[in-house]
Design goal:
This protein has 414 residues and is an alpha/beta fold. It has 4 domains: 19-115, Beta Barrel (OB fold (Dihydrolipoamide Acetyltransferase, E2P)), CATH 2.40.50; 141-274, Hypothetical protein af1403, domain 2 (Rossmann fold, 3-Layer(aba) Sandwich); 284-334; 366-406, no CATH class. It is 41% helix and 22% strand. The chain contains 13 helices and 13 strands. It has helices spanning 19-31, 34-37, 73-76, 118-132, 160-172, 190-201, 228-236, 253-257, 265-272, 276-309, 312-315, 317-360, 362-367, and strands at 39-50, 56-61, 66-71, 88-98, 103-113, 150-155, 177-182, 207-214, 241-245, 260-262, 372-375, 393-398, 401-406. It has a 5-stranded mixed barrel with strand order 1-2-3-5-4. Helix 5 packs parallel to helix 9 and helix 6 (190-201) runs parallel beside helix 7. The chain is elongated and about 180 Å long. It starts with 18 loop residues before the first helix and ends in an 8-residue tail after the last strand.
Length: 414
């Protein structure tokens, strides 16, 4: 088979070209088309993938067609929202051919959500994510100290916000100490610089509260305060954080995750720093109330003392003592009578038991004429005539002693 300009035996007069040559020819045609050098394409994102290199690969499709897209890292870094499958977007870029695959594709240089601003979408995406993790939970937010020793301020040292905070803090509580962390509050490095400042401020001894904020600005100007890293740094701070970003109508992710949101930097100073005049007034009110309570208690104590002093135990102590003595005598007398009754009853019970015991005693039986007969050999009691024989010696016990006798004969007692 001939190549290049050599004749084709099947189609005379037509040159045979390689795949590479054909692909480059088509690529050159596409690259020279002014319409394709800058095109806006709207469609639905599918097959989205973020490569480890930082490049984004996805497909844009509509009801009838689809086109492969790539967005290189240099462009993807400027995205403020996270593209997702099924999201309707408008991509701006140029169309060319990827020579290796011979596939034409759109090289996207920017993405914009269709029908909604990219900043608004990114804000809602991050807000939903952090809220699901519990970072906005009111239960994890801490109260500011009543009398802070030091206030940390993370903002730009050249902005109007820092001047307002310093002025209001010194007016409200001249003794408060301010520690300033000078950082940029907008731009690509603003969020990371504020994260670093927060970590450093958490290590400063005596800092009891931290204000993070800036004055008003555009959505883009305030965007550093919607950074996920900054939000997590605020949530993990061991010191309570006050967010003070922009004007009263401005809301950022930092406002939701902070322990307290102030509508303006000036309001943050008023929330974090107590007013010494108000404190003095409160102390004065408390002292007045305490004095009033103490006076009431003293008056109540005096009345109680006067009431006690009028009692007989104080006015006629001997009379009270005599009554107690008489009561004691009555008690002793009653106890003696009760004891005697107890002894009498116990004696009667004793005599009754003694009579019963005496009636059951063997000696009592002997006194009634009975005797006890024992064999002299082994001392066994004789209870039957079969136990002795004529001529045996026995000992007979009676009520006043005993005597010996000899068995003469045995017979029936009847």
């Amino acid at each position: 088979m001939a190549t290049g300009s050599r004749a084709n035996l099947l189609w005379p007069g037509i040159n045979v070209v390689s795949v590479t040559e054909l692909t480059r020819r088509i690529k050159k045609m596409l690259d020279s088309d002014p319409l394709l050098k800058g095109v806006l394409v709207k469609g639905e994102v599918s097959n989205f993938k973020r490569h480890s290199s930082g490049h984004l690969y996805f497909t844009l499709k509509d009801e009838s067609s689809a086109i492969r897209c790539v967005m290189f890292r240099s462009s993807a870094q400027s995205l403020v929202f996270q593209p997702e499958n099924g999201m309707a977007v408008i991509a701006a870029g140029y169309v060319s051919i990827y020579e290796r695959d011979g596939q034409y594709q759109l090289y996207a240089e920017s993405l914009q959500p269709e029908g909604i601003g990219s900043y608004h979408l990114a804000f809602e995406q991050l807000k939903k994510k952090l809220e699901a993790e519990g970072l906005f939970d009111p239960g994890r937010k801490r109260r500011l100290p009543l009398l802070p020793r030091r206030i940390g301020i993370i903002t730009s040292a050249r902005g109007a916000a820092i001047r307002d905070i310093i002025s209001i803090s010194k007016r409200r509580f001249p003794g408060v100490s301010l520690v300033i962390g000078d950082v940029p509050v907008q731009g690509d490095e603003a969020a990371s610089r504020m994260v670093t400042a927060l970590k450093l401020m958490n290590g400063v001894d005596g800092v009891d509260a931290i204000i993070v904020g800036r004055g008003g600005g555009s959505v883009g100007g305030l965007w550093a305060f919607n950074d996920e890293g900054l939000a997590r740094a605020i949530a993990s701070s061991r010191i309570p954080v006050v967010s003070a970003v922009g004007h009263e109508t401005d809301f950022t992710i930092a406002d939701f995750v902070a322990d307290l949101r102030a509508p303006t930097p000036s309001a943050a100073a008023e929330l974090a720093v107590p007013d010494v005049s108000e404190l003095n007034a409160r102390i004065s009110d408390r002292l007045t109330a305490m004095t009033r309570v103490v006076r009431r208690r003293i008056q109540s104590g005096r009345e109680l003392l006067r009431s006690a002093a009028d009692r007989p135990v104080f006015t006629r102590p001997r009379y009270v003592l005599d009554e107690r003595r008489q009561a004691l005598d009555d008690l002793v007398r009653d106890m003696g009578a009760a004891m005697r009754r107890r002894l009498t009853a116990a004696g009667a019970a004793r005599d009754l038991l003694a009579g019963r015991l005496d009636a059951l005693s063997p000696l009592g039986v002997l006194r009634r004429g009975f005797s006890v007969c024992r064999r002299c050999g082994d001392g066994r009691i004789v209870t039957s005539v079969s136990q002795v024989e004529p001529g045996d010696s026995v000992t007979v016990t009676v009520t006043d002693g005993e005597f010996m006798a000899a068995v003469g004969r045995k017979g029936d007692p009847r």
